[in-house]
Amino acid sequence: MTYEVFATQQEAVKQLAAEVAELIRSRQAEGKNVVLGLATGASPLGFYAELIRLHKEEGLSFKNVTTFNLDEYYGLPREHVESYWYFMHTNLFNHIDIPAENINLPSGTVAEEDIAAHCQAYEDKIKACGGLDLQILGIGRTGHIGFNEPGSDDTTRTRQVHLDDLTKTDAAPAFGGFENVPSYAITMGVATIMDAKKVRLMAWGEKKASIVNKAINGPITADVAASYLQKHPDAKYFLDAAAGSEL
Known about the structure:
By secondary structure, this protein is α/β, with parallel strands linked by helices. The protein has seven helices and ten strands. The strands form two sheets. Strands 1-10-9-6-2-3-5 form a seven-stranded parallel sheet, covered by helices on one side. The chain has a three-stranded antiparallel sheet with strand order 4-8-7. It is globular.
């Protein structure tokens, strides 16, 4: 696992987007598909904006791309403005040429009794597509990747999880209050993420500096799910100066 600290977020996302574009184009030249794992939240917004720019200004096509999102709030329908389905379409999918049938997100409205089967089907579909070529991540202040909160070890797979109060507090402004934030989500597990051939994690701002340092330099522990990336053969953190300030 490596990391790079950039002077600005803009420089970091430009480099990461260029790496992803090169992967997509090289696969297109071979007549092959590419499977991307995608993340939500504030961290990847600039990255998605750069992918849209590459599509509109430099002709990057996403027709050979299949995507799997990390997670979804449980209880939110797709049309809810805070659902990750809505987020991904608003901030990326509606602006590029990815085929609708290539887009995959966990469902936030699957019946309680069907959750286990739904999660297994998600895992099976990732495998059927050849696995994740590259997984994009952010990191929460609990050290979560996806919604793998403290206690999530490297045997975990796609499942329903209970959200940490710190995670809910960070989401509260978007939901108009802590009490409106869903208590549960469906998320890929740490093992699912670790199976990706490449992992790229973005973190910006001084609020992330402490947890970034713990994840990179601290012990590998279920208390900080991102710490498992220390064992990944091709994981890299993209950090701005503030997020990297405690390294």
